[in-house]
Structures are given as C-alpha cells and as structure tokens.
Inverse folding.
C-alpha cells in the first residue's frame, strides 16, 4: 500500500495543496477508513510531494467522519447550491 499511496493517491492531493497554498485539507471516503499505519504513510507521502517550506510547514490534514450518509448529504448540498429546487412561486 505505501507505493500505491505514493504514486496514485498522495501526488494529486499534494498538487491541489500546492496549487491553492492550503493550510488545511479534509480527506474523506472509504479508502480513508483504513488503519492508522496506512494513514501515516499517506500523510508522509503527501508531505513529501508538498512544496517546502510552505505550505508543507503549516499543513493540517484532517479526516471527515466516515458515514453511509455522506454521499446523500453532499448530493443535497450540491443541488441546493446549484439548482433552484426550493424557490417559492
């Protein structure tokens, strides 16, 4: 798994961090429900690919709560923000 984290997961995450000069990133999804040693490897590889000294020095990696309702909540928020579904007549 560490090699997979290095090549396929951490690099795109680090690219987004570098583009937006982020201090925080929130990661979520089923892959992140993995055990702590794999999360540690992922964080190590993210920091390896993140620009130094900033944003790497100030980077905080947070994890969302893994729930079966996350996708539904995200879909409702997306619709609410992008479509006029609840507009009064």
């Amino acid at each position: 798994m560490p090699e997979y984290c290095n090549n396929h997961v951490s690099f795109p995450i680090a690219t987004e961090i570098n583009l937006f000069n982020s201090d925080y990133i929130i990661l979520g999804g089923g892959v992140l429900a993995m055990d702590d040693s794999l999360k540690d490897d992922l964080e190590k590889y993210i920091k390896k690919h993140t620009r130094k000294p900033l944003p790497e020095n100030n980077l905080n990696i947070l994890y969302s709560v893994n729930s079966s309702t996350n996708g539904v909540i995200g879909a409702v928020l997306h619709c609410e923000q992008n479509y006029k579904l609840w507009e009064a007549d």
User: Anything to note?
Assistant: The chain has one domain: 2-82.
